[in-house]
Specification:
6-stranded parallel beta sheet; alpha/beta; 393 residues; single chain
């Protein structure tokens, strides 16, 4: 068996999160990813911490497995010559520089495509390569705010809240990986590469889905509702005797079963979801009062047995102690060259015939420079020494 992207070479010019997350997803599926980093400093996230595991940033380790690290100053003429050789051998380039930055170096898609017609060039940016804001930088917190997510996240009477992970970066990386996969598929039919232009603002806007639908239908922007759902009730967090859990009643039949378990008498006002949404102010205290006396485990066992969706609000220690995640290979041990024993997240995409392969830990800075230059490009060991002495690598 081979992984689905086996034989595909990706030249990774990205740093921080959206780009590295994209290339990690593709590396998990068998692509060879050569990560180009600045000599001495490397990817910014190598320095983001604590925590560090030994000398290695936990942040960097979380998004760079299955890659080869090559240090290369491609603004130097000798470095640029080496980069051009790597481009000629690559199927895909992924970069997340601000639009225009690589064009000044002749490394944008328009400059490279004539000599590399099969090249797929993915550009990840804050606002995309078209439109009046294309030159603006993209940062996750800014895009969560500018993209509307923060306006609908948090309590009604408090400040807007940023999500606890860099969701704007992560979803942009996911869309980029999807776009690259589509472009590779299209190349099988046309023989031509193309530009994949993925913007963080577009990606965050795409996440708005039904909230955008509510706005389009009403011309009224949705507001922050805490953990309450705007169109389904009860579908939110409740407090039991020993902590919080989520009740997610998605239809009228589940509501009837919930009432039987909770001891709530039938009330025609709440028999339909429409009635429960419009009667939220009366219904919410009724449900909360019934749930408060017993511990979470009591309710989760009773409701699960009745087929009513629910779950505890768990911290990460609880999450990663769940045998279900172990059964799904979602925590993978690895041995890192500098950090020693580490754990990384597995891939959520399970393919039956061509599965993902998490075979290599995140690289140390420049770990593969000599091997790539010597074995892939035919650079002599003496020339490698010269390049290192002059700071090109």
């Amino acid at each position: 068996m081979t992984s689905p992207l086996n034989g595909i070479t990706i030249l990774d010019l990205t740093r921080v999160l959206s780009g590295p997350y994209c290339t990690m997803l593709l590396a998990d599926m068998g692509a060879r990813v050569i990560k180009i980093e600045q000599p001495r400093s490397g990817d910014d996230t190598r320095h983001w911490g604590p925590p560090f595991i030994g000398s290695e940033s936990a942040y960097f380790l979380s998004i760079n497995r299955n890659k080869e690290s090559v240090t290369l100053d491609f603004k130097h003429p000798e470095g640029r010559a080496l980069l051009d050789q790597l481009i000629a051998r690559s199927d895909v380039i992924v970069e997340n520089f601000r639009p225009g930055a690589l064009a000044r170096l002749g490394l944008d898609y328009a400059s490279l495509a004539p000599e590399n017609p099969r090249l797929i060039y993915c550009s990840i940016s804050g606002f995309g390569h078209t439109g009046p804001r294309q030159k603006e930088p993209g940062y996750d917190a800014v895009l969560q705010a500018e993209g509307g997510l923060m306006s609908i996240t948090g309590l009604p009477d408090a400040q807007p809240v940023r999500l606890g992970v860099a969701i704007a970066d992560i979803v942009t990386g996911m869309f980029a990986a999807q776009g690259i996969s589509m472009a590779l598929h299209a190349r099988e039919r046309t023989g031509r590469g193309q530009l994949v232009d993925v913007a963080m603002l577009d990606s965050v806007a795409a996440l708005l889905t039904y909230q955008a639908g509510i706005y389009f239908a009403t011309d009224t922007p949705p507001v922050r509702m805490g953990n309450r759902h705007p169109t389904i009730v009860p579908y939110e967090t409740f407090t039991a005797a020993d902590g919080d859990f989520v009740l997610a009643v998605g239809n009228d039949d589940q509501w009837r079963r919930f009432c039987e378990v909770a001891g709530i008498e039938a009330d025609e006002r709440f028999a339909t979801n429409r009635g429960r949404v419009t009667g939220y102010a009366e219904l919410r205290p009724l449900v909360a009062g019934k749930l408060r006396p017993h511990p979470r485990r009591y309710w989760i066992e009773k409701l699960a047995a009745a087929g009513v969706p629910c779950g505890a609000v768990r911290d990460l220690r609880e999450v990663f102690s769940d045998p279900q995640l172990a059964a799904r290979d979602m925590v993978v041990p690895m041995q890192h060259a500098a950090a020693g024993a580490i754990r990384v997240l597995g891939t959520p995409i399970k393919l039956s015939d061509t599965p993902a392969d998490l075979h290599a830990p995140p690289p140390t800075l420049g770990q593969h420079t000599d091997a790539v230059l010597v074995h892939d490009l035919g650079v002599t060991p003496d020339a490698v020494g010269h390049l290192r002495a002059t700071g090109v690598i």
